[in-house]
Amino acid sequence: MSDDTTPHEPGERPEHGPAREPAGAAREDGHSADHRPEQQAEHRAEHKAEHRAEHRAEHRAEHKRVGQAAAEGPAAAAGVDGEGREGQGGEGGEPSVTGRQRLARGLWPPRLSRAQLIVALLLFVLGLGLAIQVRTTSDNGALRGARQEDLVRILTELDNRSQRLQDEKRGLDSQRSQLETSSNQAAEALKQTQQKEAQLGILAGTVRAEGTGITLTITDPHGGVEADSLLDALQELRAAGAEAIQINDVRVVADTYFTQGADGVRIDGHKVSQPYVFKVIGNPQDLEPALNIPGGVVQTLEKEQATADVVRSQKIVVDALRPSKQPDYARSSQ
User: Fold this and answer.
1) Residue 269 contacts by C-beta under 8 Å, 6 or more apart in sequence?
2) pTM of the entire structure?
3) DSSP per residue over 264-296, as a string?
4) Residue 248 class from Cβ within 10 Å (0-12 exposed, 13-18 middle, 19+ buried)?
5) What order of strands is seen across the sheet that includes strand 264-267?
6) How far apart (Å, rounded) are the C-alpha atoms in residues 240 and 285?
7) Comparing 267 with 332, which gets the higher pLDDT?
């Protein structure tokens, strides 16, 4: 037993024996002792999180100062480097990386997988096919917009050209057979040579020619028809099978040329004025449709406010002649 006694206030009952704490208090102290390590761990975790947040904020501030220094120019960047902060990124002393550098590193070198390469190749092939299709469609736009009768006329003209080529081939084959089977090959050769000479004379413009054909008259009251328009008309007639052509008083041959001068149109150096009259020998059924096809000579002249009249005739006389030129060096080998 202890001899210690504690003075008490009047009316209080002294307690004998050692002082004891209430049982409830003892239980609370024991509970606090059990949870003390968990509280310390939570405190440490909160301290680490605050430290990381402060570090991230400092790192962002440093990147922002580096970007501002780069935008202000080399002098500002040098001043920032003098402080010893922008030259170093973070507390570890590692070099800082700007947003532009990160973008460049992300884009180059390209990191492509095999699937991405295959998709890129397929897209390229698809784009190339579409471009070719669009170009082909635009090239055939004139025929797509043509009427049915115009298409039939074009097909008929193509058939006639093919027929003319076949007839020419048969004629040449017949001439060769006659030369091979004729008893008097010399006389047959002379006959064919004379026929060939007449044909070449017509083509060269040294002899007169007559036959069925058309007369094309181009009237240009506004002066919009130039040399290139007349050349287009000539080329269209040649393609349709014209055998002899005369424009006003000028005979058209293989080496005929057109020029546009201050005084108007000249053909082989000869000035011609409107109305331009084309006398053409050939098959009228081929010549006339060739001029009236959609987008052809007649429509082009109408856009230039000129008129083109086509008249068929059973007898067209081409009487303008070209002087016959003798070659200076070439001689016949026979």
Assistant:
1) 259
2) 0.47
3) EEEETTEEE-SSEEEEEES-HHHHHHHHHSTTS
4) middle
5) 258-261, 264-267, 270-272
6) 10
7) 267
**Closest by CA position to 287, among listed 249, 316, 256, 251:** 316
> What radius of gyration, in Å, describes the C-alpha atoms of the chain?
53
DSSP code string of 13-45: PP--SS----HHHHHHHHHHHHHHHHHHHHHHH
Dihedral angle over CA of 145, 149, 155, 157, nearest 10: -110
d(CA 40, CA 47): 11
First-residue to last-residue Cα distance in the chain: 165
CA-to-CA distance for 122 and 120, rounded, in angstroms?
5
Instruction: Yes or no: say if 88 and 96 are a contact pair by the CB < 8 Å rule.
Output: yes
* Count of CB atoms situated within 10 Å of the CB of 284: 19
CA 66 to chain centre: 45
pLDDT 10s digits, 167-181: 888 888 887 787 777
Closest CA to 233 of 157, 161, 310: 310
The alpha-helical segments, DSSP class H, found in 83-226 are 99-107, 114-139, 141-144, 148-181, 185-204
Q: Which amino acid is at 8?
A: H
List, for residues 13-49, the tens digit of each pLDDT value: 444 444 444 444 444 444 444 556 677 777 788 878 8
Cβ neighbors of 263 (< 8 A, separation 6 or more) are 271
How is residue 305 annotated by DSSP?
T
CB 279 within 8 A of CB 215: yes
Cβ atoms of 260 and 227 within 8 Å: the answer is yes
Q: Judge whether 247 and 277 are in contact, CB under 8 Å.
A: yes
> Within 13 Å of residue 126, how many CA atoms lie on the same side as its CB?
6
Is there a contact between 232 and 291 (Cβ–Cβ < 8 Å)?
Answer: no
Give the 3-state secondary structure of residue 214. Answer: strand
- Give the three-class secondary structure for 123: helix
